[in-house]
Write a structure and sequence with these properties.
Blueprint (H helix, E strand, L loop, with lengths): L2 H27 L4 H13 L2 E3 H7 L4 H13 L3 E7 L2 E6 L1 H9 L1 H14 L2 H22 L3
Antiparallel strand pairs: 1-3, 2-3
């Protein structure tokens, strides 16, 4: 492996880590734990209701941490779980959860949308295309492990 690729991977990992740290910092500034913010974010990103399995898949935190955050959010009256079919459940925002999300999660979504809006359409499309390409390549190659 060449030194250039090693430097590239280090930079990629650094940027990924710093991005995660920025979201942690933003969560703290908004008065929420990162795990609670992440759960609320995933729910808001899909509407006021989200399948529990989607949260576990898209939250970038462990299933155990998701469950702890869900219990905490439920105890605080911010969400409730609803049976969907069989053993599948939806996570639903309460009115209190919607209000809190407007004061927290939606501020982050607004920032993200403003960033993309400040880029050219070509830059946004290139960023998304390359991110998707990396994801697909990684999935394909990691299946061979």
């Amino acid at each position: 492996m060449s030194a250039d690729f090693s430097k590239t991977l280090k930079r990629y990992n650094y940027l990924l880590g710093e991005t995660n740290a920025a979201y942690h910092d933003a969560s703290s500034k908004l008065g929420l734990t990162y795990s609670s913010m992440t759960v609320l974010y995933v729910v808001c990103n899909t509407g006021d209701t989200c399948p529990l399995r989607d949260i576990c898949r898209n939250a970038d935190i462990s299933k155990q941490t998701v469950n702890s955050a869900l219990r905490r959010l439920e105890a605080d009256g911010l969400i409730y779980l609803e049976n969907r079919d069989g053993k599948n459940k939806n996570v639903c925002l309460t009115e209190k959860g919607r209000k809190l999300s407007e004061q927290t999660v939606w501020k982050l979504i607004k920032i993200e949308n403003e960033i993309f809006a400040s880029w050219t359409k070509e830059d946004v499309n290139q960023y998304l295309a390359l991110t998707e390409r990396y994801l697909q390549d990684f999935k394909k190659r990691s299946q061979e492990l």
